[in-house]
TrEMBL record:
InterPro entries: Asp/Glu/hydantoin_racemase, Asp/Glu_race, Hydantoin_racemase-like, Iso_Racemase_Enz_sf. This is Hydantoin racemase. Keywords: Isomerase. Belongs to the HyuE racemase family.
Length: 247
């Protein structure tokens, strides 16, 4: 058996993007770490706003419960909005890391200021909210959008990937940043190539989150069950939410 099993959750329903995210996770996983890449069976095909995140959060919780029942050691939420992160931590036993949170933390370890490159302009406000929530607003030099939808990263044309590259180059020229954070799980496989080409740290949150979960597991640290992240109160859930009952 593998010494560590990490469940990597793509909160949208795209199987292709789930495979991309899983490949990026496996590329950095330590020997003996098993990556279980999953996505909800129902929900939204891509996450590009608050409405999408609200729907996706339910799918995340469903997968968290499944992973907990399967005995995984930790979980990664592989969407840059980190949908349902705190609720997932309530439901989970092991550590749960969101890729935006992970990427921002990693960026501050290798640069004093970083820029973010993401997909649609409407998602920039979500990234700004997270910067404030996680305490990284003063570390972020600027945010950029390639102005293409999330699933353009999976259409095989290469246009979205080239726009990501161009925006990274622009950020380095204009922002005074020392690192780039890729603001979408679908960009996960681009980080290493861009790091080599641009000679600066380009950080993918999927990879960063996997290494953080591995570290927490190795240190014997799990999600605190004291205080607000304790398991949800035992109460009767109705309708389709009955399956989420943690007890």
């Amino acid at each position: 058996m593998s010494s560590v099993c990490i469940q990597v959750i793509n909160p949208n329903t795209s199987r292709g993007m789930t495979e991309t995210i899983g490949a990026a996770a496996r590329a950095v996983a330590a020997p003996g770490t098993e990556i279980l890449a999953v996505c909800p069976e129902e929900g939204v095909p891509s996450i590009e706003g608050h409405f999408d995140e609200a729907i996706a959060a339910v799918g995340v919780l469903e997968q968290i419960k499944k992973g907990r029942q399967q005995g995984v050691d930790g979980h990664v939420i592989a969407c840059f909005g980190d949908p349902g992160l705190l609720a997932a931590r309530e439901l989970a036993q092991g550590p749960v890391i969101g890729i935006a949170e992970a990427a921002m933390h990693m960026a501050t370890l290798v640069a004093t200021r970083f820029s973010i490159v993401t997909t649609l302009p409407r998602t920039l406000i979500i990234a700004r909210h997270l910067l404030h929530q996680y305490g990284f607003h003063d570390h972020c030099a600027a945010l950029h959008a390639i102005d293409l939808p999330v699933l353009a990263l999976e259409d095989g044309s290469g246009l979205a990937q080239e726009k990501v590259r161009a925006r990274c180059i622009q950020a380095l020229k204009e922002d005074g940043c020392g690192a780039i954070v890729l603001g979408c799980g679908g960009m996960a496989t681009l980080a290493q190539e861009l790091t080599r080409e641009l000679h600066v740290p380009v950080i993918d949150g999927v990879s960063a989150a996997v290494k953080m979960v591995e570290s927490l597991v190795a240190l014997g640290l799990s999600t605190s069950k004291h205080g607000d992240l304790a398991f949800p109160e035992n109460k009767a859930l109705s309708g389709k939410f009955q399956a989420l009952n943690p007890f």
